[in-house]
Amino acid sequence: MNKLLFVLVSLMIFTVGCRSQESKPPDDYRIKMGLDVKADIVVFFKKNVTWEEVLDFKKNVIGRADENGTGFESLPGMMSVVRVEIDGFEGVAINFKPTATDGERSFVQQRINDSPIVYKTYVNRVPSGITDLARHVPG
Fold it and tell me: What pLDDT is attached to residue 66?
């Protein structure tokens, strides 16, 4: 019985050791997100927008219908979208995949610029470092 237990424990240790030596695929990396992390695009919405308009923005401006019709997905090239709120302005911080093309980036930026609910956008900024939102509020 002790020999069987020894063999099983040895086999388990060997298996765990082998698994830890496996190479990870190149796209296996951690995505850092949050108010203190630099974002490729930070978008703030006008103060009077409804949650339905924000949802529509996420589904139809920075998103598109999922191919299998079960929901929606981010536009090509986008990696993450995080909700942010600064000085009472709700918005989103967007980061692109490292492999995103210039065309994918400009396509997303143009769609954001064309949205009627967008108040202000920032490029390559840390959201928590944005301090001038309240100063730009129209009279």
Answer: 85
CA gap 72, 84 in Å, rounded: 21
Residue type, 71: G
Q: For 102-136, what is each residue's pLDDT tens digit?
A: 999 999 999 999 999 999 999 999 998 999 987 75
Q: Is residue 76 part of a domain?
A: yes
E strand or H helix at 122: strand 118-125
Inter-residue contact 88 to 81 (CB < 8 Å): no
pTM here? 0.73
CATH number at 50 reads: 3.30.70
In a domain, 10, yes or no: no
DSSP 97-109: -TT--HHHHHHHH
Give the DSSP letter of residue 71. S
